[in-house]
Amino acid sequence: MTMAPETAIDAPVLELRNVSKYFGSVISLKDISTSVRAGEVTCILGDNGAGKSTLIKTLSGVYQPDEGEVLMDGQPITLDSPRAALDAGIATVFQDLAVVPLMSVWRNFFLGSEPTKGKGPFKRFDQATAKSIARKELKDMGIDIRDPDQAVGTLSGGERQSVAIARAVYFGARVLILDEPTSALGVKQAGVVLKYIVQARDRGLAVVFITHNPHHAFPVGDRFLILNRGHSMGDFAKNEITREELTAMMAGGAELEQLAHELSRDSADPQVREAGREFKDEAADLGIAD
Ligand SMILES: Nc1ncnc2c1ncn2[C@@H]1O[C@H](COP(=O)(O)OP(=O)(O)OP(=O)(O)O)[C@@H](O)[C@H]1O
Ligand SMILES: [Mg+2]
């Protein structure tokens, strides 16, 4: 009897093992391990300079790790270019989105992968098909674009993110990486993007969601990797951490508490003392100060 080759059914789609990345003397990532699973949202949280973008660039083929390894479906993989990552099914929506504002929604949807009609010299871009696919795919994600001929630049920030997400889903991404998709958005628009993140997850994609904001991460996240100056502060499943703990770890709770304390007590200016008290109340509401 022949043994079946070892298959890793439960293997995460992507896995980082002890990954480090240095830029000269700057330690951008040190000994980071985490796993990214299908049908889950993995959140990567951290303050400015924490290493979030470096981490996703390592997953999207822009950087190679100096130490450690990246595994896909349980096998070590070298992502030596963004194209290699894309071919492996890892789609990244960068903060600037790489959309062309003056181009229509449907052209942006198919940018670089236009459907064609006819053969040989008669081969041409099939506009009617492209428009109807773009409209249908967006509709399936609950995005109602009135007119696919509309320029992407006229869409709201949230809608633009949504087009980029729908595009990655349509072109068969298995892993969808979103770098701070909600940070420039108002509350309502951010909510819309969070909804699409959940939809992509429900379609079975492994979603990697980078954010500063624990209030955006907590409702949609299944796992939380918290980075601080390149180091992992912990990698938690949802049932291992509360929203308050997440916020406190993100905000550097102790430092904020100290600041609130100093503001409310020590200033000679009553307005500053008042601001300090309000700040302290707010911090208490968020669970980052008592
Ligand atoms: N190409 C590079 N050359 C030199 N240093 C770099 C490079 N890329 C990142 N770094 C450094 O690595 C550290 C982490 O940067 P990174 O951009 O990953 O942080 P981040 O968590 O994405 O921050 P932000 O929230 O501001 O986007 C920073 O100290 C940064 O200066
Ligand atoms: Mg960044």
Ligand names? adenosine-5'-triphosphate, magnesium ion
Give the structural class: alpha/beta
Average of pLDDT? 82
| SSE order, one letter for each helix or strand | EEEHEEHEHEEHHEHEHEEHHH
User: Tally of extended strands?
Assistant: 12
Portion of residues within helices: 25-40%
CATH topology of the largest domain: Rossmann fold
Main sheet specs: 6 strands, mixed
Q: State the fourth-level CATH superfamily of the largest domain.
A: P-loop containing nucleotide triphosphate hydrolases
Strand order of the largest sheet: 6-9-10-3-11-12
Using the 3D structure, state the CATH architecture of the largest domain. 3-Layer(aba) Sandwich
Given as residue ranges, the uncertain stretches (5+ residues, pLDDT < 50) are none
Total domain count: 2
Structural Rg: 22 Å
Overall 3D shape: globular
Which strand-content bin applies to the residues? Answer: 15-25%
What is the end-to-end distance?
65 Å
Number of helices: 10
Broad CATH class of the largest domain? Alpha Beta
Write the layout of secondary structure elements.
Layout: E1 14-23, E2 26-36, E3 41-46, H1 52-59, E4 67-72, E5 75-76, H2 82-87, E6 90-93, H3 105-110, E7 116-117, E8 124-125, H4 127-140, H5 157-170, E9 175-179, H6 187-202, E10 206-211, H7 214-220, E11 223-228, E12 231-237, H8 243-251, H9 253-266, H10 270-285
Parallel strand pairs: 3-10, 3-11, 6-9, 9-10
Antiparallel strand pairs: 1-2, 1-4, 4-5, 7-8, 11-12
Helix pairs in contact: 5-6, 8-9, 9-10
The structure holds adenosine-5'-triphosphate and magnesium ion (MG).
